[in-house]
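Hi all, posting the design record for the shared folder.

TITLE: backbone redesign
STEP: 1 of 1
STRUCTURE INPUT:
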């Protein structure tokens, strides 16, 4: 049996560890854009120039740095939240030109992923995956897999707009690419069902929970396979750890 003083220190250590974990959540202020964006992956508009970059993604389960950095930017207006992934990549590739329920997971190749849980309750959160061919896999999770959640693969993200730009040559093993950019316009009206108590579009100061991920697969000696996240998640639960999603704050 531990002496009383040791039990007290042990309890305090657990409390501080819990506080540290709770605080270790990335935040990003999403600025409002008043000018239209062309969703083509090139990020040429002045609004994107003003949008700050997120921190660099880390290996999702350990927090270690990646070999090929990924960062993102976000904006919003009354119709959409806009998300842009900027992914350093020496070999950009993709195979699936379409996806439907019953097909293999799109995450078997290179993808950018968004998980969205506006009210942060861990229920009915949205997952969207996009490969460099602009193929989309979209679904709703009833809750995380570790809690017995099920994926509704028949759900469609109506109104989603996708743009991809490759700085290099897609599916060419003979050259060395620089990066690929995935730009998304995600309509608020399609997401409103999953958080009925919240504002769609958001109001100034509203806070959402979401996370951004990347599957970077090495198929040659140019790179190794890395699974990375904007906010580090959990080794056991993988990407499906809603309590570990980042926080975004909508601002005007």
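Okay, here is what came back for every position:
SEQUENCE:
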């Amino acid at each position: 049996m531990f002496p009383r003083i040791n039990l007290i220190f042990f309890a305090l250590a657990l409390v501080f560890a819990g506080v540290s974990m709770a605080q270790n959540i990335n935040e990003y202020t999403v600025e409002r854009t008043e000018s239209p964006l062309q969703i083509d992956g090139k990020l040429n508009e002045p609004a994107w120039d003003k949008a700050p970059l997120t921190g660099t993604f880390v290996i999702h389960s350990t927090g270690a740095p990646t070999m090929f950095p990924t960062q993102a930017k976000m904006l919003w207006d009354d119709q959409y939240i806009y998300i842009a992934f900027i992914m350093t990549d020496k070999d950009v590739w993709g195979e699936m030109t379409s996806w439907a329920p019953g097909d293999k997971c799109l995450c078997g190749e290179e993808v950018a992923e968004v998980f969205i849980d506006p009210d942060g309750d861990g229920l009915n959160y949205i997952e969207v995956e996009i490969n460099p061919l602009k193929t989309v896999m979209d679904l709703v999770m009833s809750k995380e897999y570790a809690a017995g959640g099920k994926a509704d693969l028949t759900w469609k993200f109506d109104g989603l707009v996708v743009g991809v730009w490759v700085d290099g040559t897609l599916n060419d093993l003979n050259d060395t690419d620089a990066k690929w950019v995935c730009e998304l316009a995600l309509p608020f009206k399609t997401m409103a069902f999953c958080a009925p108590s919240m504002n769609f579009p958001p109001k100034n100061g509203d806070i959402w929970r979401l996370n951004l991920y990347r599957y970077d697969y090495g198929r040659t000696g140019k790179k190794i396979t890395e699974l990375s996240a904007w906010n580090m998640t959990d080794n056991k639960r993988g990407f499906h750890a809603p309590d570990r999603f980042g926080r975004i704050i909508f601002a005007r």
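COMMENT: Residues 114 and 171 are 23 Å apart (CA to CA).
Let me know if anyone wants the other runs.
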